[in-house]
């Protein structure tokens, strides 16, 4: 199975004027921390200023959709609106149907938020069958895969700047 990631970015986008939010679940901390770090690293490579990267957390992946909506609203009320949010979570299959229900619900609601908020909401939720798959996609297993958080950071900047 080959997972190539975002691929070559078609141009160097300038994120210097953007405010990007990262909202992460707290489950699977080691994996989440790596994904958040990857997203921040890539945002900064696209010139997003460190002070314009706002990081918050919610209990789990199920809370990401509503948390994302509240996160946008909170920053708006503070007079510091976000241009995009990267909700980051990790769901790993267990022995019950819980995984399928959460994956489906979170995916659909995050997608809908793009249109409801009219802002990019980047899908930063790993849906993996094993712990090893999640660790690989977080760049924690040397030579196995890259850190998908980097893809999400790049996607956020591109979606905020490409069509404006």
UniProtKB/TrEMBL annotation:
> What UniProt keywords apply to this chain's record, in alphabetical order?
Riboflavin biosynthesis, Transferase
SUPFAM superfamilies registered for this protein in UniProt: Lumazine synthase
Q: What are its E.C. numbers?
A: 2.5.1.78
Annotated CDD domains: Lumazine_synthase-I
A Pfam family annotated for this UniProt entry: DMRL_synthase
How is this protein organized at the quaternary level?
Answer: Homopentamer.
Name of the protein in question = 6,7-dimethyl-8-ribityllumazine synthase
Q: In the record, what lineage is assigned to the organism producing the protein?
A: Eukaryota, Fungi, Dikarya, Ascomycota, Saccharomycotina
Query: Gene name, please?
Result: RIB5
């Amino acid at each position: 199975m080959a997972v190539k990631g975002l691929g070559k970015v078609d141009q160097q986008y300038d994120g210097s004027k953007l405010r990007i939010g990262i909202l992460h679940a707290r489950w699977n901390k080691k994996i989440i921390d790596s994904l958040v770090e990857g997203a921040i690293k890539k945002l900064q490579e696209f010139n997003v200023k460190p002070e314009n990267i706002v990081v918050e957390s919610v209990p789990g992946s199920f809370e990401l959709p509503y948390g994302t909506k509240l996160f946008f609203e909170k920053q708006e009320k503070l007079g510091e609106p976000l241009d995009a949010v990267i909700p980051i979570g990790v769901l790993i299959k267990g022995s019950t149907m819980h995984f399928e229900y959460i994956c489906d619900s979170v995916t659909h609601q995050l997608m809908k938020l793009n249109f409801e908020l009219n802002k990019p909401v980047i899908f930063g939720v790993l849906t993996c069958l094993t712990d090893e798959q999640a660790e690989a996609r977080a760049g924690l297993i040397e030579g196995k895969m890259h850190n998908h958080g980097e893809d999400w950071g790049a996607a956020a900047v591109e979606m905020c700047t490409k069509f404006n």
